[in-house]
Amino acid sequence: MDSDTQILIDFNQAWNDHDIDALMSFMSDDCVFHTVGGPDVMGSTHRGREAVRKAFEAAWTNMPDAQWLDGTHFVVGNRGVSECTFSGTDKEGHRTEARMVDIFTLRDGKIVVKNAFRKNRPAQPVK
Question: Would 127 be classed as within a structural domain?
Fold first, then answer.
């Protein structure tokens, strides 16, 4: 396995560990994060380490039990893909479970762009 693919595997694990410092250790100083939803064509865009850090932390604030499961990862050139099943419960008790893909741009062993996509599946009340 190449080192860039290992970065994506370790990055996925840091999400599941809810470890913001580990997550940010994978991000470049000029990093960009495009969220799965938001008002713009790219969802919501966060630029720079502090903005990306806050956006990443919001995932756990909004869904404290969030997990990214069954990940598969590959890299071709400077582009990487991670596919997984996202699951989490929001503060109102609605559960989201849907397949998702992150598309990455990598440079010098760091993630420069994380572009997230998720199936548009309605949240379900927890029974």
Answer: no
